[in-house]
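Worked problem 6 (solution included).
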Amino acid sequence: MAEVRTRPASNRRKSAVAEPAVQHAGPAEIHDPVLRNEFKRAAVWIGLAAALALTAYLARPLLIIFGGMVFAAMIDGGSRLLGRVLKVERMWRVAIVLTLTIAFLVWTAMFAGSQIATQAAELPDVIQTQSLKVLDWLQAHGAVVNLKTAQSLIEKAAGAIGELTSAVSNLIGGLTTAFGIVVLGIYFALEPQLYQRGFAWLLPIAQREHFAVTARQMGHTLRHLMAGRLAGMTLEGIATWLLLGWWGVPMAALLGLLTGLLAFLPNIGAPISGAIMILVGFSDSTSTGLFCIFVYLFVHILDGNIVVPLIAKHTADLAPAVVLGMQLIMGTLFGLLGLMLADPLVAMIKVALERQSLRNEEA
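Solution. The predicted structure is:
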């Protein structure tokens, strides 16, 4: 007769504990592979829509971060240029560039601040008066002008100019947005590789080399683009100030500063500054107005034939219509900040698309 062996009760209990519990499907379990695949696709699209919505919600903070990157490119470009003549560590060169920038702003506030503030308070009234004279002249020569609508537009434009000149006169005080851009720009400029490596770490290993090359090319393009902007701003601002001051045009310092600042906005800034300059000139006399027209044409022809060709060959070749379209979109969505950053944003998008196109060709 076969011998039956039984395990002790303690062993039976241990075995029962060691055996895994039976796994039962939950209510969210999807067994159909087709349905599971469709669910994954839907999750991807839902996640993409959520990411776009979050980006739209955080558009302004993201724009400030991008502004910090643009400011960092200007600092980095200045430190690289300084490195050609001064062989010191990069951090010292960055510190020198920042010190010179702060010194320039302090000098502007101390020696030109009161004069510019006084002129800024007078400029909107001058613009409004001269614009009404232009309307009267057009109406006297047979043009059909709705004076009520035109006066309303002129008052709004004068108010906008007043806000602009008020911002210029209070530039040293700064705004929260400008302060955030400057602080972020300083951090980015001090240790750019730290942030580049940190962002690359978030990407798959196979894409990190492509990202590193793209980031270097973007930095190169952005530095030269900003160098061209700063060179054009300096040339146009100083030349306008000196020429108008030599002729005795009213508000020459303010007009030079506005011309230099508005030169940062390609396609849009030059006509605005030119119109303001010419209106102020004709408020003094006809000869002064004609001289202002000459100054406007001379300064922008000089900038377009000297500064722009020297810089353009080192930067992305941007189509003017594309830049203008982006300026209109960004200006409508985000105001002055979006308008200022539209040009660098187009340049960065173009570099990214060109790099991706090259990668697709090599694949």
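Discussion: Residues 203 and 211 are 9 Å apart (CA to CA).
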